[in-house]
Amino acid sequence: MNPCTGGVMKSSYYFEVIISHDFLPHCFTLDCWFGIIMAKRIAVIGGGTSGLACIKCCLDEGLEPVCFETSDDIGGLWRFKENPDPDRASIYYSLIINTSKEMMCYSDFPIPAHFPNYMHHSLIMDYFRMYADHFQLKQHIRFQTKVLRVTPRPDFSHSGQWDVETESKDGRREKQVFDAVMVCTGHHCHPHLPLQDFPGIDMFKGKFFHSRDYKNPEEWRGKGVVVIGIGNSGGDIAVELSRMAKQVYLSTRRGSWMLNRVGDKGVPSDMIFNKRALKWFLGWLPVGFSNSWREKQLNKRFDHKLYGLQPAHRVFSQHPTISDDLPNRILSGTVSVKPNVQEFRGSSVVFEDGTVEDDIDLVVFATGYTFSFPFLSSHVIPVSKNKVSLYKYIYPPGLERPTLAVIGLIQPLGAIMPVSEMQARWATRVFKGLCKLPPISAMTKDIKAKEQAMAQRYVAAQRHTVQVDYIPYMDELAKQVGVRPSILKLLVTDPRLALNVMFGPCTPYQFRLHGPGQWEGARQAILTQWDRVNEPLRTRCTPEPQSQRSSHSLIFSVSVAALLSALYYSRASLHTLIADPSSLLDKIRALVPLPLTTQ
Ligand SMILES: Cc1cc2nc3c(=O)[nH]c(=O)nc-3n(C[C@H](O)[C@H](O)[C@H](O)COP(=O)(O)OP(=O)(O)OC[C@H]3O[C@@H](n4cnc5c(N)ncnc54)[C@H](O)[C@@H]3O)c2cc1C
Ligand SMILES: NC(=O)c1ccc[n+]([C@@H]2O[C@H](COP(=O)([O-])OP(=O)(O)OC[C@H]3O[C@@H](n4cnc5c(N)ncnc54)[C@H](OP(=O)(O)O)[C@@H]3O)[C@@H](O)[C@H]2O)c1
């Protein structure tokens, strides 16, 4: 057992050990010794996708996780409930994820081959349950236990410890000490409902609510509906309601580029665009050129200007809205795209272009979310309009000890799950002292640089405060952990794999090929990723199309057979044949009615 990689030896937490440095073998740090003596206890707040990854990573590193989850089950946002829990995100019944299964899985646990590429939330829950069962994570979760307060202990500057106060369902409060805390409470829980921007809403005669409270469309059959906001919630809800409602008006103050799940040749589009080679290539091009290239592609599918969706900003300046169906609904007139709402008048809605739509029964505010950390004192992680200053979106830089990590507070252009997992892999190694954070000045510089880059690239909006590009961010973290794939090394040792890593989709398995947490199934998972994409699509044996090529080859085969037969029957008079080759042609004509010509 290597003490530095964490020998798990459970011990009473309050057991105190006094070890003189003189006793330590010279290569061991005090932390290593404590690693042998007792596993550090880590409080994981939240049992959603990020929380599950944290429990698993703690166990991998020999730490002792205790996860607190307010609700009675795992899954966080992905567990559908007709009546939302107060502290938990809430989704609509038809929700289908917009990140494909090979791109969203945990890096050492591929999603079963037969699962569809874009899964309904119920299947996502099935997958999370398999993950939790396989790695025996649930036994580390205390359900129906809410974290009320997390405060640094008086000796925090040298112990790095936290007091965590919880409340169980029956109102029982408890305080425990932890060596580190992982905050996994999500950032799509609290609705952003900017009613102050909508004069007259208080007198609106119909019903209005935030997209978090939307569940299904039945109630709105034959009604007039306005959906405000064109993020993925607004897009999905407008499409679904348009199949039931009399008319849906989709109001957007800025417009949006519309991406789709179904990429070229039906391949999941995130598997086409999240490729190292493509990112590398685009990185070399001027930003304006990459934008134009992508916008041209999107306009080929439908003209964004013609459909009233074209924004003033470029395609890479906005978090993508993904909807394969919206253009279809616009073309069929069931969704009308409108500008921003100017005011509400009784049951009418006045838009900024002066148009008025009457008899509106429902307004859905699909206007996004806000987040906060109510259990932390505001100076630990100050948040203002969804802006936070965290080193690599994880660590509050001002803490004397790096024992608090926020996991999953990112909006990747890709799936959150593998990113949360990678953050957790790094954080657990930081807690153990195996990875070090830089000094506060360097962290602040990095934070500022990221803020500037985001401000330069993205439209200024509350929804664009924690944006990360999937591959560069994963690589950045992977480098810290020591698991970033080395393409050059792979080219020498395993060229087939190297080509897949470089030119194939950047699936999470790439970060399990070597280094801490290496998984021996990673190589095979990469080489078989397209099989798992194809598997759920093979639901009917399709006949081979009768191509021109095959009918030509049939003609050729029959002709050869006829020629050989004619030769066989003429073998007795070969000399006549040599003297008069056209007699052979007559013999072939007699055998097969082929369109042979003598010209
Ligand atoms: C409609 C919608 C669709 C989305 N689709 C995608 C997608 O296609 N792909 C993608 O990658 N991401 C998507 N997201 C983003 C989504 O946030 C992530 O997929 C994911 O759910 C984040 O997981 P999480 O564990 O960080 O947070 P959550 O899933 O929100 O889990 C947080 C957990 O913390 C618990 N909790 C909160 N406070 C406390 C407390 N004080 N004490 C104890 N427990 C607490 C909650 O009960 C909850 O279980 C979507 C978001 C929305 C709103
Ligand atoms: N199927 C899926 O997988 C799926 C479905 C839903 C959501 N999601 C994810 O969930 C997250 C949240 O998405 P979301 O759509 O709920 O929120 P969002 O991405 O934050 O979008 C909010 C929308 O509301 C608009 N808005 C905000 N304030 C406004 C105001 N005062 N007046 C007018 N418009 C305003 C925004 O416009 P501006 O752009 O002008 O600010 C934007 O169009 C995202 O990560 C998204 O990808 C995924």
From TrEMBL:
Class of enzymatic activity (EC top level): oxidoreductase
Molecular function GO terms recorded: flavin adenine dinucleotide binding; N,N-dimethylaniline monooxygenase activity; NAD(P)H oxidase H2O2-forming activity; NADP binding
Cofactor requirement: FAD
Gene3D superfamilies reported in the protein's UniProt record: FAD/NAD(P)-binding domain
Domain of life: Eukaryota
Record GO biological process: lipid metabolic process
Pfam families (UniProt xref): FMO-like
Protein keywords: Endoplasmic reticulum, FAD, Flavoprotein, Lipid metabolism, Membrane, Methylation, Microsome, Monooxygenase, NADP, Oxidoreductase, Phosphoprotein, Transmembrane, Transmembrane helix
Location of this chain's protein in the cell: Endoplasmic reticulum membrane; Microsome membrane
Keyword Flavoprotein belongs to the record: yes
GO cellular component, one term: endoplasmic reticulum membrane
Catalytic activity: octan-3-one + NADPH + O2 + H(+) = ethyl hexanoate + NADP(+) + H2O; hexan-3-one + NADPH + O2 + H(+) = propyl propanoate + NADP(+) + H2O; octan-3-one + NADPH + O2 + H(+) = pentyl propanoate + NADP(+) + H2O; hexan-3-one + NADPH + O2 + H(+) = ethyl butanoate + NADP(+) + H2O
Enzyme Commission numbers on file: 1.-.-.-
Main localization, broad class: endoplasmic reticulum
Topological category with respect to the lipid bilayer: Single-pass membrane protein
Keyword field contains Transmembrane helix: yes
PANTHER family in the record: DIMETHYLANILINE MONOOXYGENASE
Free-text function comment from the UniProt entry: Acts as a Baeyer-Villiger monooxygenase on a broad range of substrates. Catalyzes the insertion of an oxygen atom into a carbon-carbon bond adjacent to a carbonyl, which converts ketones to esters. Active on diverse carbonyl compounds, whereas soft nucleophiles are mostly non- or poorly reactive. In contrast with other forms of FMO it is non- or poorly active on 'classical' substrates such as drugs, pesticides, and dietary components containing soft nucleophilic heteroatoms. Able to oxidize drug molecules bearing a carbonyl group on an aliphatic chain, such as nabumetone and pentoxifylline.
Family: Belongs to the FMO family.
Full protein name: Flavin-containing monooxygenase
Organism of derivation: Onychostoma macrolepis
